[in-house]
Amino acid sequence: MKVSHIEHLGIAVKSLDEAIPYWEGALGLKCYKIEEVADQKVRTAFFMLGQTKIELLEPTSEDSTVAKYIENKGVGIHHMALAVENLEEQMADAEAKGLRLIDKAPRKGADDMTIAFLHPKSTQGILTELCEKK
Ligand code: ZN
Fold it and tell me: How close is the Cα of 78 to the center of ligand 1, in Å?
């Protein structure tokens, strides 16, 4: 696989309204976008930190995977997203190397990215997202 950098860290929060003041107030970052991703049942908020983004994830439904994550593990780092080019090629390579794909085909992510998730059981316990700028 060929990854260029950490595109973003996905962070599970109970409430964007409660979380954003920490990132803006304490850390001095600026939220540049809030976007709902309906098929993932989350509302996201984005901050830029160097070439890496912070993606806050607030569940919009109790059956959201992020809601289940918070229930089981609490708020905090949910996933790591790696920037790639030629996402489909990288997915095929990941599968050839024995990694488990959660997404069998690329899908639409937040902030104009095309994404695919790898299963944490095959990635050292880290839910890993591959993402490519559209
Ligand atoms: Zn993400």
Answer: 9
Ligand 1 center to residue 9 CA distance, Å? 7
Ligand 1 center from residue 128 Cα (angstroms): 8
pTM, 2 dp: 0.94
Q: What is the DSSP letter of 101?
A: B
CA distance 33 to 101: 28
CA of residue 68 to ligand 1 center, whole Å: 16
Strand partners, 128: 80, 118
What is the Å distance from ligand 1's center to 63 Cα?
18
How crowded is the C-beta side of 128, counted as CA atoms within 13 Å? Answer: 22
Give the pLDDT means over successive 10-residue stretches in the chain (134 positions).
96 98 97 94 97 98 96 97 97 97 95 96 97 94
